[in-house]
């Protein structure tokens, strides 16, 4: 793992004896105390994730109109101090990346997936958009859980949900990827020791990418490379709520056609009463509709197998049949959230 | 009971007269992460050396445990049904998986020292 990138918290991860993995070219913590334990810290109290591997791109607000031609949501209408989830689309209306924009008076911070940082910066350059990649000079920490806001209140002025704030040291937003309340905080790397001290002093537990994945899955949130790819559109990924851009953005005609006709693939959530977990790639049938599992794992809260399946067309029933290593097992499509 | 011997596929076994106890190594449980489901065979099921006997589902991945020699299952660890996590906390003790009668003895597993150097 010699050539892997490391974050400003790398020394901390080593001191904590975290189990480390390679992720998108970075050497990142998978777990510290165990995925389920960390999952429950976030569901019941508070936990923090080093997500500094994610791309952070600084853009001046005069680029907003240009960016609006590349994403399926309306960045022009977004008010200053607000955060917005959106998707960069390609000419086929499929997802290049799913991202978060933090909008301020003069500038925007674009947060993209680590695996797509090069793709997105190349895409911006190709479209003659000026930007500054600040990934390596800054860190990004997500502090999440029902107790997170109360604990952070002593350090920061708390914005409304999906809103941003900025002070001398921190740029942050009340956003996350766990289904819990919390903040995502960006700062220059020199402040890492101060941030770690605050987190430890407040007993906010370090959590790894393992629990980040089980938490996002339980919260029904897509992961790029699985639920969203360059072959899957936001309509297919059940993200119609993200599509509100009237500009003629890349791939809009195909996305509009998907919306109008309903003829496309369908991403659905599933739950399974079984001791086997349908993993990514597991083949699925719903009557005569075929599909494939995009993500599947154990839900520590439901104590059942859950996940996403991408079906070739709209299924007529909620019954699914999974082929798990030769065993045919029944599951159900869930139309509501996994967690009520 | 003999000392535990280890396989390259990360199972351990120990021999007691004509019966073996099988589990997975501490290294294996650490690599798997939190174990959430275990599918055990039925008592009376027969396996040849190298057959997949058990499926272990963890938050990180799924793994199989293989028969260390030709054997017939005599007992399964039913505690794993409600507490699969004991494989994580005590893989070489209370987290054992199955016991089986030996059909053909094959005591060629690695000693702990050999296994340690195999995984390092």
Summarize the structure.
Chain A is of the alpha+beta class and 340 residues long. Chain A is built from 8 helices and 19 strands.
Walk me through what this model shows.
- The complex is a heterodimer of chains A (340) and B (120).
- Chain A has 340 residues and is α+β, with helices and mostly antiparallel strands.
- Chain A is built from eight helices and 19 strands.
- A six-stranded mixed beta sheet of chain A has the order 10-11-12-9-3-13, with helices on both faces. Chain A has a six-stranded antiparallel barrel with strand order 14-17-16-15-18-19. In chain A, strands 5-6-7-4-8 form a five-stranded antiparallel beta sheet, covered by helices on one side.
- In chain A, 47% of the residues are buried.
- Chain B has a single domain, classed as RNA polymerase II/Efflux pump adaptor protein, barrel-sandwich hybrid domain (OB fold (Dihydrolipoamide Acetyltransferase, E2P), Beta Barrel).
- Chain B starts with a strand and ends with a helix.
- Classes of the chains: A alpha+beta (340), B alpha+beta (120).
- At the A-B interface, helix 2 of A face strand 4 of B.
How do the helices and strands line up, and which of them pair or pack?
The complex is a heterodimer of chains A (340) and B (120).
Chain A: H1 10-15, E1 19-23, E2 26-31, H2 35-44, E3 47-50, E4 55-60, H3 64-67, E5 83-89, E6 95-103, E7 107-112, H4 117-126, E8 132-133, E9 138-144, H5 148-152, E10 164-166, E11 170-173, E12 182-188, H6 192-201, E13 205-207, H7 209-218, H8 252-261, E14 266-272, E15 283-286, E16 289-299, E17 304-311, E18 319-324, E19 327-334
Parallel strand pairs in A: 3-13
Antiparallel strand pairs in A: 1-2, 3-9, 4-7, 4-8, 5-6, 6-7, 9-12, 10-11, 11-12, 14-17, 14-19, 15-16, 15-18, 16-17, 18-19
Helix pairs in contact in A: 2-7
Chain B: E1 5-6, E2 11-16, E3 19-24, H1 26-32, E4 35-39, E5 46-47, E6 52-58, E7 62-66, E8 70-76, H2 79-82, H3 86-89, E9 98-104, H4 112-119
Antiparallel strand pairs in B: 1-2, 2-3, 3-9, 4-6, 5-8, 6-7, 8-9
């Amino acid at each position: 793992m010699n050539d892997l990138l490391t974050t400003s918290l790398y020394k901390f991860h080593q001191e904590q004896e975290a189990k480390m993995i390679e992720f998108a070219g970075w050497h990142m913590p998978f777990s510290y105390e165990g995925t389920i334990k960390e999952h429950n810290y976030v569901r019941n109290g508070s936990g923090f994730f080093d997500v500094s591997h994610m791309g952070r791109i600084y853009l001046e607000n005069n680029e907003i109109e240009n960016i609006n031609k590349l994403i399926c949501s309306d960045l022009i209408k977004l008010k200053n101090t607000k955060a917005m989830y959106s998707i960069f689309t390609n000419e086929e209306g499929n997802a290049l990346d799913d991202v978060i924009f933090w909008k301020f008076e003069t500038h925007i911070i674009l947060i993209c997936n680590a695996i797509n940082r090069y793709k997105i910066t190349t895409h911006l350059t190709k479209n003659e958009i000026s930007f500054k990649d600040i990934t390596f000079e800054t860190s990004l920490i997500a502090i999440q859980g029902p107790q997170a806001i109360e604990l952070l209140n002593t350090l920061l002025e708390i914005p409304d949900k999906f809103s941003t704030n900025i002070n001398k040291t921190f740029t942050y937003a009340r956003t996350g990827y766990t289904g819990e309340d919390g903040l995502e905080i960006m700062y220059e790397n020199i402040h890492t020791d101060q941030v770690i001290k605050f987190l430890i002093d407040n007993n906010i537990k370090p959590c790894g990418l393992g629990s980040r994945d089980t938490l996002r899955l339980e919260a029904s949130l897509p992961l790029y490379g699985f639920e969203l790819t360059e072959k899957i559109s936001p309509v297919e990924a059940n993200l119609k709520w993200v599509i509100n851009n009237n500009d003629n953005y890349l791939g809009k005609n195909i996305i509009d056609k998907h919306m109008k006709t309903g003829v496309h693939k369908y991403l659905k959530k599933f739950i399974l009463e079984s001791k086997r977990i349908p993993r990514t790639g597991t083949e699925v049938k719903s009557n005569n509709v075929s599909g494939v599992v995009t993500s599947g794992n154990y839900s520590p809260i439901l104590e059942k197998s859950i996940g996403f399946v991408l079906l070739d067309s709209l299924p007529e029933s909620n019954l699914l049949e999974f082929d798990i290593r030769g065993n045919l097992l029944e599951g159900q499509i869930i139309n509501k959230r996994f967690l009520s | 009971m003999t000392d535990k011997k280890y396989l390259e596929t990360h199972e351990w076994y120990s021999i007691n007269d004509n019966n073996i106890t099988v589990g997975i190594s501490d290294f294996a449980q650490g690599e798997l992460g939190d174990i959430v489901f275990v599918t055990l065979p039925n008592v009376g099921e027969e396996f040849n050396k190298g057959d997949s006997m058990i499926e272990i589902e963890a938050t990180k991945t799924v793994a199989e445990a293989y028969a260390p020699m030709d054997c017939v299952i005599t007992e399964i660890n039913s505690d794993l049904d409600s507490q699969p996590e004991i494989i994580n906390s005590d893989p070489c003790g209370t987290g054992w998986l199955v016991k089986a009668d030996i059909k053909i003895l094959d005591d060629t597993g690695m000693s702990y020292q050999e296994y340690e150097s195999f995984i390092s």
